[in-house]
Structures are given as structure tokens and as C-alpha cells.
Amino acid sequence: MSFDLVMLGPPGAGKGTQASRLAKRWGIPHVSTGAILRDAVKAATPLGRQVQSILEAGGLIDDETITRIVAERLERPDTAPGVLLDGFPRTVPQARTLDGLAARRGPLLVVDIVLTEAEVLRRLASRMVCAECGTNAQDDEDYATCHDCGGPLVPRADDREAVVRKRLQVYHEQTAPLVAYYAPRPSYCRVDGAQLVDDVTRSIMDAVTAARSEHARLSPT
Ligand code: AMP
């Protein structure tokens, strides 16, 4: 049974790190809308030019543009066994659109990675990402080169404190309502993001196993 997994949580909760680990483990694509947009900015495509100043200011791209990007990505054949969605949806209208897209796919599971604001600020102040491929540095790295491609590690442009505060405000106003949107569903689960990275991965895998069996129990084929 294929399934799609949405990673919810504030900036810095570990969505990208966990999505990339789990995508490798499950052999399904990691779809990060932030990475797609940053790549477009780097390549100076028309989309990149359209969104650059919004990304730099920590705001959100309009729902229509971002849902079009995700809908197109979900049409590609590599997504047939399921995808890990990192950074999408970020608003209730985006979640409604995703429900429409998911109706033609497998079940949609939602993992909410919970982290306090103090911990978010502490983590983002020291986060390093690869300048080449955008991968987050691992905790145990020497902060010189990327473990995936060997590229140089740099701070992420929108991790400056003023921008982080703006991103947190946007998260509380526009993304946090998604918790109420998804929480009543049996496919929604919460995971403590303050644990060690390996323990967060294990908790997500346990939660996904439980959510998949609950889904199979409620909708037997
Ligand atoms: P992220 O890497 O997920 O933190 O995303 C980085 C930035 O990309 C965000 O601060 C937004 O400007 C933009 N972005 C990513 N995903 C979305 C989305 N689903 N809706 C609107 N803007 C997005």
C-alpha cells in the first residue's frame, strides 16, 4: 500500500532532516517546496525571480503558485509509491487542495513534529546547509563539508534572526491552524522534535506504522 506523508512543524523542527532520511529508507521522493523554490532562485528562472524577495523576507508564496508546483510534481511517475511532503501544505487552502489531489492517491498521513519556540531559535541560529545541494548538515559533522555531496556548508540565507522571527509569526498565523485541520483524523500523529535525531526518526516510523494499520482497519479493501 502506498501512502503520502506530510511533515508538519515550525521552521527548524527537523522536517527536512527527517524527510530526507525517511525518503532514503522508504525509497520514495522527498518533495521539499522550500528546496524547489531555492533551486529556482539559484537558477534565476522566471519562478525564481518571482519568489526571491518573498523567500528572503520569510513570507509565503501565494497558494495558487505553490499548489501548481506540487500538483505538477505529483504527476511525475516516481511519486506513484508515495512521497514525503516537507513544507507543504502551509496554509488551510493548500491543505484542502492537497486533499483533492490525495483523493486519487494512497492514504495521506500527517506527522506533526513539535518543538518549543526557544528551541527553534536556538537551532536555527546554528543551522548549516550545503551551498551546493541544500542538504542540512548533520549534528556530528565538522561544519566544513556536506556529507552528501562534499559541498561547502553555509548558514541558510533566511535563518538570520529577524527573518526567523518573521517565519515564526507566519507559522503561527497561517500554518499552525493546520494542526486543528488534521488533528481529528486517525492519520494525524505528534512526535517530540526535541529528541535526538535518531529517536525522532524512530518515533515517526512507529507513528506511521500505527497510522497505516489504523487506516487499513478503517478502510479494508
Ligand atoms: P522551507 O525550506 O520549508 O523552510 O521553506 C522556505 C521558504 O519557501 C518559506 O519561508 C516560504 O517563503 C517558501 N515556501 C516553502 N513552502 C511553501 C508553501 N507551501 N507555501 C508558501 N511558501 C512556501
How would you describe this protein?
With 221 residues, the chain is of the alpha/beta class. The chain has a single domain (3-201), classed as Rossmann fold (3-Layer(aba) Sandwich). Helices cover 50% and strands 12% of the residues. It has nine helices and seven strands. It has helices at 15-26, 33-42, 46-57, 63-74, 92-102, 117-126, 161-175, 177-182, 197-218; strands at residues 4-8, 30-32, 84-86, 108-114, 129-130, 153-154, 188-192. A five-stranded parallel β-sheet has the order 2-3-1-4-7. Helix 2 crosses helix 3 and helix 4 (63-74) packs parallel to helix 5. It is globular. The relative contact order is 0.18. The mean pLDDT is 92. Bound molecules: adenosine monophosphate. Adenosine monophosphate binds at residues 11, 33-34, 37, 54-55, 58-61, 66, 87-90, 94, 158, 167.
Quick structural gist:
The protein has 9 helices and 7 strands, in the order E-H-E-H-H-H-E-H-E-H-E-E-H-H-E-H. By secondary structure, the protein is of the alpha/beta class.
CATH class: Alpha Beta
Shape: globular
The strand order across the widest sheet is 2-3-1-4-7
Distance between the termini: 11 Å
Q: How helix-rich are the residues, as a percent range?
A: 40-55%
SSE topology string: EHEHHHEHEHEEHHEH
Strand elements, count? 7
Question: Which key phrases capture this entry?
Answer:
221 residues; two-stranded antiparallel ribbon; 5-stranded parallel beta sheet; binds adenosine monophosphate; Rossmann fold; alpha/beta
How would you summarize the topology of this molecule?
Elements: E1 4-8, H1 15-26, E2 30-32, H2 33-42, H3 46-57, H4 63-74, E3 84-86, H5 92-102, E4 108-114, H6 117-126, E5 129-130, E6 153-154, H7 161-175, H8 177-182, E7 188-192, H9 197-218
Parallel strand pairs: 1-3, 1-4, 2-3, 4-7
Antiparallel strand pairs: 5-6
This protein binds adenosine monophosphate (AMP).
